[in-house]
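Q&A log
Question type: sequence-to-structure
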Amino acid sequence: MKPKGFTLIELVMVLVLIGIISAFVAPRLGSITSTSAAVFAAKLRSDLRYAQALAMTQTMRYRVYINTAPSPNPGYAVVNDANGNGIWGEAGEVAINPAGGGTLSVALNAGQYAGITVSTPAGGYIEFDSLGGPTGGGAVLTVSPGGSVITITETTGAVN
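Response status: OK
Response body:
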């Protein structure tokens, strides 16, 4: 009868392979927040473009408030002033989230966005007019960690 089991050499080889794999995986685990920050930066870029598209298709100004009311602090929200009373983001004036309904409002330092911050633009918001241009000029936002930069071009409103 042949003995069953593993030899010492086989066990050592498995341990060596596990060690080599963990040497490559462990440094990546520390950058999960940086990866989440990059994903958040892409989402913020997309939502800025969405606010711009809403402003052009609905021929009304839309604002993206960042870290200031009516957005979560820290976070952002896409709003309008549909009734024209000068108060932005009242009931019914927050954009619908195209990725699943509900309001387009994102809170930072919670859930999947824990540990992520974004700089606040001058005035606390970016406003797009009905032609898609930013009314207050261009803006540069920085997402940390990772230092992703989002630029809104002054004349065209291009979000890069």
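Response note: The radius of gyration is 23 Å.
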